[in-house]
Amino acid sequence: xxxxxxISKALKNLDEKIDALYRYxxxxxxxxxxxxxxxxxITLSEVEAHTLNSIQQEEGLTSKRLAxxxxxxxxxxxxxxxxxxKNGLIRREVNPENKREYRLYLTELGEKTCEAHxxxxxxxxxxxxxxxxxxxxxxxxDSFFKVLQYRIGWFxxxxxxxxxxxxxxxxxxxxxxxxxx
Length: 181
What we know:
Layout: H1 4-11, H2 14-33, E1 35-37, E2 43-45, H3 46-57, H4 63-70, H5 74-86, E3 90-95, E4 98-106, H6 108-133, H7 138-169
Antiparallel strand pairs: 1-2, 3-4
């Protein structure tokens, strides 16, 4: 059991923390949807670029698998992969084990774009860490990323729970509580 004193300390200024997280998520959402040319002449959002990364990391994955690992709907993945294919960044091949499925692969241009995006992200992260070091210790920065990993896991669990509830209850589910998920 976690001591009450630790809980009280973590919950200090709760409304400010909630507001800060909301503002952070709003800013990050806008940032991830902005389109950029990562150096190959094709403009992509961060979401699309990271989709390329996922395809590169697990070559031959299906759209269903891509939806699972990217925490997106099949419909969203379909839209993203259609754009990537139209831009010549990926190709689809019929899955020989299931003729109704397609496996996804990067094209040569997709590989170049993926590498250009990875370099862009590395430069951005170096810039962020450099900025943060002006305000935080290296240990505080590491703690932020540790907490971030736990938040990702928590929200994945919540999203999975809410998704399964919605499937059981249909579209009539209007609200959800995070407690106990």
